[in-house]
């Protein structure tokens, strides 16, 4: 069965600094949301796609409506309004997914040029029975723990991974985690961390350098250069 895919695109994009929601920012002539939806659809894993938007955004609503018009059975694409935090936006997306969906992928629209193969790797492992799956990459920099300006620890880099999206979950396990005590914890930054807090084992698959998150103006330049070079 195909996965339910929640694309969270309700953030304001403060660090990118364009003064409009990040998903609306143009990259090589198209919005970041259009790029993200193209990867989701091209992966072929998506059944119901729910795009979580800033409330009342006419431009992004039109992007989703356009994608819905072009979508081919069995893929449906709908939009819902997001919340004040990423976690609240994920919960809005979860509530809008058909209750019959067994596998849910949660993806950041800001990871706009994520290769379809990453969706396929994540969806395949969840479909094979894993409760939670995240795409990861090795960490290239040495990472320090710093407290009050002083380095207090250097974790073994071989044990560290940088985490990307889409993150894939058994739908019931994700719903339970989002309904549990940890759901309101502001220090929990992604759905996998919420699953860890619920005691669910989280497995990893190989991520991709192209699944980087467009966060800063530098990242937008990189995404445009990648698209111009035809690498993505
Ligand atoms: N997101 C969301 N709802 C929120 C906050 C974030 O749907 N209330 C989404 C963003 O749209 C983005 C993803 O979560 O696709 C990752 O968040 P981030 O990169 O932090 O995006 P923004 O919050 O928009 O950026 P910033 O933190 O710089 O304002
Ligand atoms: Mg943010």
From TrEMBL:
The gene is ispD. It catalyses: 2-C-methyl-D-erythritol 4-phosphate + CTP + H(+) = 4-CDP-2-C-methyl-D-erythritol + diphosphate. Keywords: Isoprene biosynthesis, Nucleotidyltransferase, Transferase. Pathway: Isoprenoid biosynthesis; isopentenyl diphosphate biosynthesis via DXP pathway; isopentenyl diphosphate from 1-deoxy-D-xylulose 5-phosphate: step 2/6. One of its GO terms (biological process) is isopentenyl diphosphate biosynthetic process, methylerythritol 4-phosphate pathway. The lineage of its organism: Bacteria, Bacillati, Actinomycetota, Actinomycetes, Micrococcales. Belongs to the IspD/TarI cytidylyltransferase family. IspD subfamily. The record marks 157, 213 as: Positions MEP for the nucleophilic attack. It comes from Arthrobacter cheniae. This is 2-C-methyl-D-erythritol 4-phosphate cytidylyltransferase. It comes from the Bacteria. Catalyzes the formation of 4-diphosphocytidyl-2-C-methyl-D-erythritol from CTP and 2-C-methyl-D-erythritol 4-phosphate (MEP). The record marks 15, 22 as: Transition state stabilizer. Its EC number is 2.7.7.60. One of its GO terms (molecular function) is 2-C-methyl-D-erythritol 4-phosphate cytidylyltransferase activity.
């Amino acid at each position: 069965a195909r996965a339910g895919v929640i694309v969270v695109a309700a953030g304001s994009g403060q660090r990118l600094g364009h003064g409009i929601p990040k998903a609306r920012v143009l990259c090589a002539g198209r919005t970041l949301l259009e790029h993200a939806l193209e990867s989701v659809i091209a992966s072929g894993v998506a059944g119901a796609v729910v795009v979580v938007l800033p409330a009342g955004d006419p431009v992004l609503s039109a992007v989703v409506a356009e994608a819905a018009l072009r979508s081919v059975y069995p893929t449906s694409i709908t939009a819902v309004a997001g919340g004040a935090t990423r976690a609240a936006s994920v919960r809005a997306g979860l509530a809008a997914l058909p209750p019959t969906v067994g596998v849910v992928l949660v993806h950041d629209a800001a990871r706009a040029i994520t290769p379809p193969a990453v969706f396929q790797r994540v969806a395949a492992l969840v479909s094979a029975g894993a409760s939670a799956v995240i795409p990861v990459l090795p960490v290239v920099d040495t990472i320090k723990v710093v407290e009050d300006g002083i380095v207090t620890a250097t974790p073994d880099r071989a044990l560290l991974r940088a985490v990307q999206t889409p993150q894939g979950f058994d739908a019931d396990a994700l719903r339970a985690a989002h309904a549990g005590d940890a759901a309101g914890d502001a220090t929990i930054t992604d759905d996998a961390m919420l699953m860890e807090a619920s005691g669910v084992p989280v497995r990893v698959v190989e991520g991709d350098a192209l699944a980087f998150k467009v966060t800063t103006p530098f990242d937008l330049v990189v995404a445009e250069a990648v698209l111009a070079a035809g690498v993505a």
